[in-house]
Design brief:
heterodimer; A: 0% helix; 58% strand; globular; B: mainly beta; six-stranded mixed β-sheet; four-stranded antiparallel β-sheet
């Protein structure tokens, strides 16, 4: 079963605009990770945010975590065509170290 | 190598044949994960290895699937008597404990 679910399923924007993707999960977690996947192959780790953190930045990426709402968001500012990819959130499975993934948000950035 | 590698990158097989997929994790990474991803879907967890502990096989969809990790390094995922529904991209990842997971490029399996 999937722990996290991304929303929206698909997002289409123009270069320069901001892109916001959301992730909701069901059970308590100690961390949440965001990944990017290009062309249906390997995933690239973007950011890990721990349960005691509310916000984290990495370059043009900003991740927030609201444990009371069991949700997280990924904001990509000033998007570029190269940001076109699928984005997944991952949360630990039960009490394990095994990340479980949602179905992802497919982002298309038009040049 | 610098990253996780997987081989083959593509595999086409006939229904009923056995296949072996290989994963070379990053040197020193104690944890290794196998996932599969069907077209347009999320990642489905298959199996998890952590050091010398017994693997977590709870994600394997049937007894046709098995995996081993030799010497705490290379892992092989074996699918026996392949079925068309086994067609997917099989992804391997490794990590040092609960740190960031590094994924390989995947093996695209097509069962005819």
């Amino acid at each position: 079963s999937q722990q996290g679910e991304e929303d929206p399923q698909a997002l289409s924007i123009q270069e320069g605009e901001n892109a916001t993707m959301n992730c909701s999960y069901k059970t308590s977690i100690n961390n949440l990770q965001w990944y990017r996947q290009n062309s249906g192959r390997g995933l690239v780790h973007l950011i890990l945010i721990r349960s005691n953190e509310r916000e984290k930045h990495s370059g043009r990426l900003r991740v927030t975590l609201d444990t009371s709402k069991k949700s997280s968001s990924l904001l990509i500012t000033a998007s570029r065509a190269a940001d076109t990819a699928s984005y997944f959130c991952a949360t630990p499975r039960g009490g394990s170290y095994i990340p479980t993934f949602g179905r992802g948000t497919s982002l298309i950035v038009h040049p | 190598g610098a990253g996780v590698s997987q081989s083959p990158s593509n595999k086409v097989t006939e229904k009923g044949k056995d296949v072996e997929l290989r994963c070379d994790p990053i040197s020193g990474h104690t944890a290794l994960y196998w996932y599969r991803q069907s077209l347009g879907q999320g990642l489905e967890f298959l199996i998890y290895f952590q050091g010398n502990s017994a693997p977590d096989k709870s994600g394997l969809p049937s007894d046709r699937f098995s995996a081993e990790r030799t010497g705490g390094s290379v892992s092989t995922l074996t699918i026996q008597r392949t079925q068309q529904e086994d067609s997917a991209v099989y992804l391997c990842a490794s990590s040092l404990g609960d740190s960031s997971r590094y994924f390989g490029p995947g093996t695209r399996l097509t069962v005819l």
